[in-house]
Predict the 3D structure of the following.
Amino acid sequence: MADDVPESTRREERSDHSPWNWLLVLPLIATLFPPLFNRVSPALAGIPFFYWYQLAAIGIGVACTLIVYRVTRR
Amino acid sequence: MFDNVDWVQFAVFTFLFAFVSVLGFLAARWRKAEDLEHLDEWGLGGRNFGSWVTWFLIGGDLYTAYTFVAVPALVFGAGAIGFFAVPYTVIVYPMVFLVLIRLWSVSHVHGFVTPADFVRARHGSSMLALLVAVTGIVATMPYIALQLVGIEAVLKAMGVTGHLPIIVAFGILAAYTYNSGLRAPALIAFVKDTLIYLVIIVAVIVIPYKLGGWQEIFGAAEQKFADSPNPADGVLLAGPVQLQYATLAFGSALALFLYPHSITGVLASRDRNVIKRNMAALPAYSFILGLLALLGYMAIKAGIVPIGADPEAGEPGDGNTIVPLLFDQMFPSWFSGVAFAAIGIGALVPAAIMSIAAANLWTRNIYKEYINKDATPAQEAKSSKLASLVVKVGALVAIIALDPQFSIDLQLIGGIIILQTLPAVVLGLYTRWFHRWALIAGWAAGMAVGFWATYQIQQKVFNADGTVTVTKEHFGGSAFPLSELGFDTPNVIYAGFLATLANLAVCAVATWLLRAMKAPEGHDATRHSEYFADQDDPRLQDLPEVVH
């Protein structure tokens, strides 16, 4: 089936592989191990570490996806 | 029907509600299609949404009204565990980044509208596709019903009682969804999300200021949990809850983009870059959700008592009302009206998209597959439009005629059962190693384990004298004690995680067995290169006949 497609409609073989994709694992490591952040101090403006750290981790997630998007853009 | 209604508040709420209703009807003319009588148009908005529209649409779709009332309610009642919504929505986008672009590409080439369409083509099994479709519909239905719970919480806080208001609200919603399809929630999402951002940002600045700062707020929460006899609550995670926290966040993240309504939002986008950009931009909503969760603690400090609660008798009341009550107490009437409208409209967008997604599953994978094999695009669109009405009536009946608790229980199980489509859909995007029959066996095993586990879970109330009262024998939550499996540990785990492990194990073993027995393979209608196709690549229907 695949071989019947005329050359004109075929694109060169592409893939999504990139070593940069490994960056996407970082946010998981940062947030899925509660012992890393399950504590009160250092508090930030009265907000325990547990809470502001995880809110800050949103930034880690954004940074990682953004970098992967930019460097793998064709 | 109206007890002590604040009329300014009510007027602002009603005005905004009416405004989005008009928008919903006008949406049919927005990015006008040549012919709305086609599922690509009615059900996927023309498959042509750019980055901004997609951001509002998916944001409005995933962060539902129920989330907005239930997450702070959980934080209010149990503390840190309720904050799982943050790691959940941090990890979900990096996790699905690569997966969704593959799904988009192959769906673009083949014109797939639902995840079950993909499963059918990839694994060559209509049985497996039917299971995926039915699982999707069953998981979505209670979710729609819960959006009504979100609206009801707001109405209750305004003093509006009785079922008539939500019947009217849902009637209007059903009418403009029927009329405009996915364009209606896409357009309304702009209003919904703008209001939500406005309200939450104002709330996290004004309310802590009025309550004397974050130190005071967390102090009050610590005091409440120290006084509470429940060993699992607290401002930090108690030891055994940590595993539950992580598995709940991880399991929920795996489940989110398996839900048909999430996939509808993704497939409606124009190209791969729109999806990639959104994976980086959608966490803005996660930040809002995190702040919203903290409203639970603010409600503790503000001394909010949920509607229907009786602290003397140990009756917890309707926790979902705490956020509306907090807004009511903290804001002037007109602004609390805006805040209530934000939550109420927040229910409409996901309810519309969910009903469209469920209707598409019905049309593509049941109606066209079994009832009218030669359905024309116009017949498909008609079938979906009607199905979207049926779905909404069903949700309405579930809330009005049955105990809303039934929908809450079902939604809890919904997350667990939708996870059972993971091997067929997500792993299927990467490999055809799994045998189609093994995927069916794995699905069945995962369902069985999921139901068994949630059936075992009791809901308990810890009394001041140290005794424990079981308030619900079965389906009391999703936190499964590992001791039930014979492990000598106090740890609890998310039941969906357990069910998914069972599913994967059965898939692997059964595949190995079926291969050894040389069971017939299904036909794969997709090709490797199609998983990387982008907008400028030809769609299969545009290619010359040689492809077939």
User: Anything to note?
Assistant: The longest strand of chain B covers residues 468-472.
